[in-house]
Amino acid sequence: MTVVKALTIAGSDSGGGAGIQADLKTFQELKAYGMSVLTAVTAQNTLGVQGVYPLTVSQVEEQLGSVGEDLKPDALKTGMLFSAEIIEAVAKKIQQYDMNNVVVDPVMIAKGGAKLLQDEAIDTMKKDLIPLATIVTPNIPEAEVITGLTLNSLKDRKEAAKCLYQLGAQNIIIKGGHGEEEEVVDLIYDGETFTQLINERKYTTNTHGTGCTFAAAIAAELAKGVTVMEAIRVAREFIQVAIEDDLNIGSGQGPTNHWAYQSRREKV
């Protein structure tokens, strides 16, 4: 049996709905061997983030060195990186160990509004990390911050996608979850062609960790050697059913259901 390996470089979510925990659950469900490099520990639940405790740059570097020396991943995703110094260190290690199939989820703000990326780190992300991305997966607010554009229309999102491509990302998907359309419209750009993928919108507050889970699903599929578009299609199905079959736990913005994808496939 061929074992594919996927790495997540992100923060820990004590509530289990996002971050490292969501990524590893997703890897497992999609049959990729999951590995992790922690960038920060957060105290959080469905009500919000109560504390953020970043690791040191050397601690992050040592974790990446341990993985890179022995268990080189077939794909990786980045999530919460917190600071410019950590982003710079992560980018250098990705290059040092020649890691491919890089999914950059530019995590900036938690669902409850807590800031998960320092303002001064945005330029470093644009300069050092996005150019390494096989695919970058911003939502609309994140794309606005990175590009400096206001995205009120599909035309605006296309301009933002072009800007992200010019920064060096090979593929861009601007997720439509924050859009105002009745359906969720995800916009994909590969430098030549725009593709729109449309899903039914489910109105629910139980969407904590959707961005992390979506990016992790893409990474798990890329680790298997599929195309970017094939990986996106699986990831969209994975997160769609995870939202539809939500767990309804906690008193605030609840997590999605990471086992819903396989459960639904077993019923077919």
Please describe what this structure looks like.
The structure is a single chain. The strands form two sheets. The protein has a six-stranded mixed beta sheet. The protein has a three-stranded antiparallel beta sheet with strand order 7-8-9, with helices on one face. The protein is globular. The mean pLDDT is 93. With 268 residues, it is of the alpha/beta class. The chain has helices at 19-29, 57-70, 84-96, 121-129, 140-147, 154-166, 210-223, 228-244, 260-267, and strands spanning 5-13, 33-45, 48-54, 75-78, 102-104, 135-136, 172-174, 183-189, 194-200.
Secondary structure: elements and pairs:
Blueprint: E1 5-13, H1 19-29, E2 33-45, E3 48-54, H2 57-70, E4 75-78, H3 84-96, E5 102-104, H4 121-129, E6 135-136, H5 140-147, H6 154-166, E7 172-174, E8 183-189, E9 194-200, H7 210-223, H8 228-244, H9 260-267
Parallel strand pairs: 1-2, 1-4, 4-5, 5-6
Antiparallel strand pairs: 2-3, 7-8, 8-9
The rounded Rg comes to 17 Å
Order of helices and strands: EHEEHEHEHEHHEEEHHH
Multimeric organization: single chain
State the low-pLDDT regions, or none. none
* Helix content range: 25-40%
Question: Which overall shape is indicated by the principal axes computed on the Cα atoms?
Answer: globular
For the sheet with most strands, the description reads: 6 strands, mixed
Q: Spatial order of the strands in the main sheet?
A: 3-2-1-4-5-6
Average of pLDDT: 93
Distance from N terminus to C terminus (CA atoms, Å) equals 25 Å
Strand content: 15-25%
Number of helices: 9
Number of strands: 9
Structural class, judged by helices and strands? alpha/beta
